[in-house]
């Protein structure tokens, strides 16, 4: 039997700059939130040691940055943290446990063929085995496998690759998987993959091949995908959508010809993420809104303690009159200032108005204006209205005037009784 510690999506060096309390755990060293993600990484290695595993597998997104157009690399604090934790882990375990890490969609400079996990391998060339996005592309071009072989087990590596983006990529990737990445029939075989959307970044063949285990990453919610394939989930809550998730890493026991045995090993996160759902109506006044928010915050009104301070998001939905919403936003800004004083145990306070519909009051809505015109001579007034729009193309303006005048004339000028009489005939 071989025992693997499978973890993923540690997102070390994740930081928040907006809507967080400007308070550093140690002055100018590390922020509370950045440290949370370091601790997730640390705890996973502690569990790896305690269960006496044979291998450690990280299925991607070890570092949070760079990502997308954000080309900043991990902070010195986080990089040092990771190297120190690994060094101590290898010392405690007599350099007997190899650590395998693949690239996710975070942590690599995609346009530069360079990944932030390369320095980890440089620091521990005999114990750390990394597989980058760049190595994957090279393996596809060279038509070579991406495998690390040990005497009892082979690991097949699938760093993040969005092959479903273009048909020719999908075909090239499938050919590469088929020709190079099929499991060994004699030795134990484990696939390590960063991807979750089938046909887009997770290839169906990987779930169909008889690997003894598929170590998946990218999905922050831990889940069993198949009896031999698990998403480990992230080690610390990342978005507010994860606020109620319990985080853990996986102890995976595999033996040839048997279903893997999976044990979850919990990682307790010290910080709460709280979301207040508030539904607004067009008659909700700023005053009533302020009262609601303050009532919700009462339970958090206590001395600030960084170790336990909560992250809070106010999620707004429903409808609000625009002028009311502006006043409510001012209230939120004021409350945020107050919350970041030491009388609230809150580290982050943000709001999300993405799903709130904001409307102008009826009296100011567009379209109402037209009634100011259509009083004396509706047809002439309509022409004035169209001219007031300043349409540059005269032909276009004339067409609109003619068409509009016809409609206006019919609606306002034809005596309704004529129509009634017509009906009687
Ligand atoms: Mn990811």
The CATH homologous superfamily of the largest domain is termed Metallo-dependent phosphatases
Structural class per helix/strand content? alpha/beta
Number of strands: 19
Assign an overall shape. globular
CATH architecture classification of the largest domain: 4-Layer Sandwich
Radius of gyration: 30 Å
> Which CATH C-level class of the largest domain is it?
Alpha Beta
What does this structure look like?
The strands form five sheets. A six-stranded mixed beta sheet has the order 8-5-4-1-15-16. A six-stranded mixed beta sheet has the order 9-10-11-12-14-13, with no helix packed on it. By secondary structure, the chain is of the alpha/beta class. The protein has three domains: 2-267, Purple Acid Phosphatase, chain A, domain 2, CATH 3.60.21; 273-363, no CATH class; 366-424, no CATH class. A hairpin with a 3-residue loop joins β2 and β3. Helix content is 34%, strand content 24%. Mean pLDDT is 92; it is low at 416-425. The structure holds manganese (II) ion. Residues 9, 60-61, 104-106, 218 line the site of manganese (II) ion (MN). Manganese (II) ion binds next to loops.
């Amino acid at each position: 039997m071989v025992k693997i510690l499978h973890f993923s999506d540690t997102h070390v060096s994740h930081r928040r700059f907006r809507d967080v309390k400007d308070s550093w755990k140690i002055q100018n060293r590390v922020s509370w939130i950045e440290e949370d993600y370091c601790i997730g990484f640390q705890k996973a290695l502690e569990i790896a040691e305690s269960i006496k595993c044979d291998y450690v597998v990280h299925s991607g997104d070890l570092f949070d940055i760079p990502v997308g157009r954000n080309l900043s690399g991990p902070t010195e604090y986080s990089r040092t943290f990771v190297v120190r934790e690994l060094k101590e882990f290898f010392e405690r375990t007599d350099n007997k446990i190899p650590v395998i890490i693949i690239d996710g969609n975070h942590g690599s400079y995609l346009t530069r063929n360079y990944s932030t996990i390369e320095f980890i391998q440089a620091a521990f060339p005999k114990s750390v085995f990394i597989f980058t996005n760049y190595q994957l592309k090279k393996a596809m071009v060279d038509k070579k496998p991406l495998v690390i072989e040990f005497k009892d087990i082979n690991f097949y590596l699938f760093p993040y690759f969005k092959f479903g983006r273009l048909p020719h990529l999908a075909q090239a990737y499938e050919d590469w998987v088929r020709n190079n990445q099929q499991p060994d029939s004699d030795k134990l075989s484990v696939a390590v993959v960063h991807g979750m959307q089938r046909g887009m970044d997770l290839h169906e063949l990987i779930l169909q091949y008889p690997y003894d285990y598929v170590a998946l990453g990218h999905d922050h919610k831990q889940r069993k995908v198949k009896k031999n394939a698990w998403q480990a989930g992230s080690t610390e809550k990342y978005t507010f959508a994860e606020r109620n998730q319990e985080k853990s890493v996986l102890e995976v026991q595999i033996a040839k010809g048997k279903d893997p045995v999976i044990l979850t090993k919990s990682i307790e996160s010290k910080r709460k993420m709280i979301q207040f759902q508030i539904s607004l109506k067009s008659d909700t006044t700023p005053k009533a809104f302020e009262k609601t928010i303050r009532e919700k915050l009462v339970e958090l009104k206590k001395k600030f303690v960084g170790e336990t301070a909560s992250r809070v998001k106010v999620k707004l939905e429903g409808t609000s009159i625009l002028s009311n919403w502006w006043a409510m936003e001012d209230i939120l800004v004021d409350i945020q200032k107050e919350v970041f004083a030491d009388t609230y145990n809150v580290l982050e306070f943000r709001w999300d108005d993405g799903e709130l519909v904001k409307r102008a009051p009826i009296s100011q809505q567009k379209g109402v204006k037209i009634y100011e015109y259509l009083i004396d001579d509706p047809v002439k007034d309509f022409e004035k209205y169209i001219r007031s729009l300043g349409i540059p193309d005269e032909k276009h303006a004339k067409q609109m005037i003619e068409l509009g005048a016809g409609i206006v004339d019919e609606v306002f000028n034809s005596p309704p009784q004529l129509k009634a009489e017509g009906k009687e005939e």
